[in-house]
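As the next step, I selected for study one protein, both as residues and as discrete backbone shape codes, as given directly below:
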Amino acid sequence: LGKTAAKGMPWALIVKRAVRGDFEQQDILNLPPLALKAVDDLMREVERWSLELQRHCAEDWNQFSAVFVQCLSGAPSKEPSPAFQV
């Protein structure tokens, strides 16, 4: 693997884990168990904070989700959004 490809692998692994909910077999063949545990721990911590935000700041969560989906889809905003505040 080239240096650039190797640098992108951790990010790709985290994204796959976040989207799928677990790892595919080919993703984990050469990874040490400690690395897999670290990714799982990170996902649990992110989920915990996500749930906290949803419970305690529902409007902020909704605005964040709308911006996030817009960024992922690449679609331009149809109307100006109100200022996001935390």
